[in-house]
Amino acid sequence: MRLATTSIAAAVALSLTSAAEAAGRHRLDLPGGRLGDAIVALGRQAGVSIGVSDPQLAAEPVPAVRGHLTVEQALRRMLDRSRARFVAVDGRTFRIVARPARIAGRRSDRPAAPSAGPPPPPLVLDEAIVVTGTRRPVRLSSYSGGAYIVGGEDPELRQGLRGSDALVSRLPVVASTHLGPGRNKLFIRGIADSSFSGSIQATTGQYLGETRLNYNAPDPDLRLYDVERIEILQGPQGTLYGAGSLGGIIRVMPNAPRTDRVEGTVSLGASLTQHGDPGADGAAMLNLPLVDDRIGFRAVAYASTEGGYVDDAGRKLEDVNRVRIQGGRAALRLESEGGWTVDFGTAAQRIRGEDGQYADRDAPPLTRESAIAQPFRSDYLLGDVTIRKDWGEVSFVSSLGLVRQKIEETYDSTVFGGDPRVFIQENETTLIAAESRLSGTGGPLVDWVIGTSLVSNETQHRRQFGPVAGPELLPGVTNEVREAAAFGEARVALAPGITFTGGGRLAHALVSGASLGEFRLVLEPLSGPKADRSQTVFLPSAGLAAEINPRLSLFARYQESFRPGGLAVSGDFIRRFRSDDVATLEAGIRYGQPGRGRFDASASVAYTRWSDIQADTVTIEGFPTTANIGDGRIYSLDMRIGWRPLSGLELEAAALLNDSRVSNPAPSIVISPNFPLPNVADFTGRLGAEYHAALADRLDLSLSAAARYVGESVLGVGPVLGEEQGEYVDVSLGARLDRGPHSLSLTVTNLLDEVGNRFAVGSPFTLIEQRQITPLRPRTVRLGWQLRF
Questions:
Q1: Picking from 8-12, 48-52, 574-578, which range would have the lowest pLDDT averaged per residue?
Q2: What does 577-614 look like in DSSP terms, one character per residue?
Q3: Domain spanning 248-788: which CATH class is it, in words?
Q4: Does the pLDDT of residue 108 top 50, yes or no?
Q5: pLDDT tens-place string over residues 510-551
Q6: What is the Cα–Cα distance from 1 to 13, expressed in whole angstroms?
Q7: Measured CA angle at 520 (ends 514, 523), to 5 deg
């Protein structure tokens, strides 16, 4: 009896909770005009997904809706006098369908006209196909550029355990080096400069919400727990994002605090790595409404241990390359009566790698010989505040972020059997970035955005070299960049379904640098212990998009971006390196929408001209340095096909073909003309499959499989870094069983136990003596459990 009473009470509580969630009120300010535009605004403001079953309904006129309303109340007011009605799929998913036709008089006896075939697939206008990285919401089908949106429920991201390598595994257009977590560089569509992290700015801009994650530091590799979606905009993106977006931008959108409900998750996992040590991971998320419909708090904490799998025969140690990661995020949201929203956020992560991630190419698999341990560490801290206000047709966003990032790396510099020697490199970065912008729709423009941006970045590079017991302090450098910019972009309707996008960014950068410690000058005009210069650039953009029909669209785009120069260390010398810039012309086609309908496809071809390429490289002795290596050009072809032959089954094929060359090498760089740019394979392809089925009431099964091939590339430029890498296959499998709030998952990575070579160096000082590889993590099986409440 007690059990029955408890069960009934739990069921009643669950139903009341569901009802309360569905009835949650939101401060809404929805524009009048097209139903499609109003739905996009409602989905963004209320955090729900809304679909339209008939493309013609998207053009229906609807009135403006404002007030403290539930989604259902807003939809009723919006659709009251239209030809449409809404259907609630669940508390956060709605569909807009046509109202049943009213037939006056008696029914006709004439036979119905034969059907012209199945109805067209729905035109979905929810967050899944809206690009917000354009600084205002733009439907993917009308965006004049290459873009990918990966949802938080994607099998590669669902566990949250992985960082940027989840995107590398998911999208052929994204590539990475593999020195270790917190030390890598990310590249988009073949725009890759070098293998090492030094003085130069990243080619890919990375953002957490509105906040820039790094400037001239490696990818912080934040774990992707509790993420709503990730947007990848292929570059350049100079107009909207300024310096450092040569390859494009990656924008991680975390789940925002909710002010209307308590929710949370707890997850645990254990893994076994063949030929290596076991691993473990755990995470928790909690969302609390502190003041109902006014203040919400959301926090995530996580920790993981990745077991080592490389043996060091020289020191007679096994599985030396264990990595430990701890981190978390927290956010506080304040919502006012007047419709203002203020978000405070913070993120922190600590990475400790016990040794290098590499093996010797000519030794037994997964083994090497080194004289000393080569640990690395990364400490990352971020704080930001974002203010928003939406007046319906006009929106305002202002953000301020502060980032501190510190990376310390140790390299074995012992050569030819001599006494153990060590090289220690420490990079410490402070980044402050602020941006304010207005965006809107209506009037003679389809949409527009204008804004200002301020960036201050300071990086200090310190180095030590010599005997392990007492290495000497070598010359170092500090680089400072101050950048102020004003930008704007607008779309104009040239004809029904055809839009032109044009914009520009006027940026002024003040670059200064100075040596740390003693130095010697290089005997050339651009040498010296200090460097101060300013640079003013204008970065234009132009794009054209044509929606031929609701499922087919074409686009073309031209855009530019740049990176300021600075100072670098070369041995005992200080030298300057110049700014570089890129210009890209691309054209593409999209058919259908990812995840919608039976079939979708997209393809784009791009040509990139790259002048005065900056590259972090190494000297003949192995010391890291930075130099301009020459000019370059890149041809790329990006393709994706999605097919859903059966209910619940989705198949996908994607590929990137890349042809890059250093067409005009600098005289100081010993390479032949037409040498390829490093770290991006000539071909990368992925085949993926997902299957979802409801086995019983509240019992769901999800299966996934993927095979990824990475073609040939080279480590870097110059005689020391000409090692080949790539040419491997990585196969993964996954299964997930959801029963109510509980989930069990089983994943297998590197199913074929391929050794491969993701990055052909561990220590540049011993590269001449010992050819090296960075192998894939061996076959790893992980069992996970998650509780949602």
A1: 8-12
A2: E--EEEEEEEEEEEEEETTEEEEEEEEEEEEEEEES-E
A3: mainly beta
A4: no
A5: 988 887 765 544 434 444 456 678 889 999 999 999 999 888
A6: 18
A7: 100
* CATH number given to 14-98+120-124: 3.55.50.30
Topology of domain 127-241, per CATH?
A: Ferric Hydroxamate Uptake Protein; Chain A, domain 1 (2.170.130)
The residues, any chain, with a CB within 8 Å of residue 614's CB and separated by 6 or more, are 193, 200, 201, 563, 565, 577, 578, 579, 580, 626, 627, 628, 629
Give the residues across from 512 on adjacent strands: 480, 532
Other beta carbons less than 10 A from residue 532's beta carbon = 10
3-state helix, strand, coil split of the chain in percent (to 5) is 10, 55, 35
Classified as helix, coil or strand, 1 is: coil
Largest Cα–Cα distance of the chain, in whole Å?
Answer: 101
Beta carbons within 10 angstroms of residue 359's beta carbon: 26
Which residue type, as a one-letter code, is found at position 753? D
> Mean per-residue pLDDT for 575-599?
89
Residue 639 DSSP SS3: strand
Whether the Cβ atoms of residue 59 and residue 38 lie closer than 8 Å to each other: no
Tokens 């009723």: give the residue.
76
pLDDT at 763: 86
The position carrying tokens 């203002």 is 340
Domain boundaries, the chain: 14-98+120-124, 127-241, 248-788
CA dist., res. 48 & res. 546, Å (int): 28
The Cα–Cα gap between 273 and 494 comes to: 57
For 417-529, strand residue ranges (E) read: 421-442, 445-467, 472-495, 498-516, 520-521
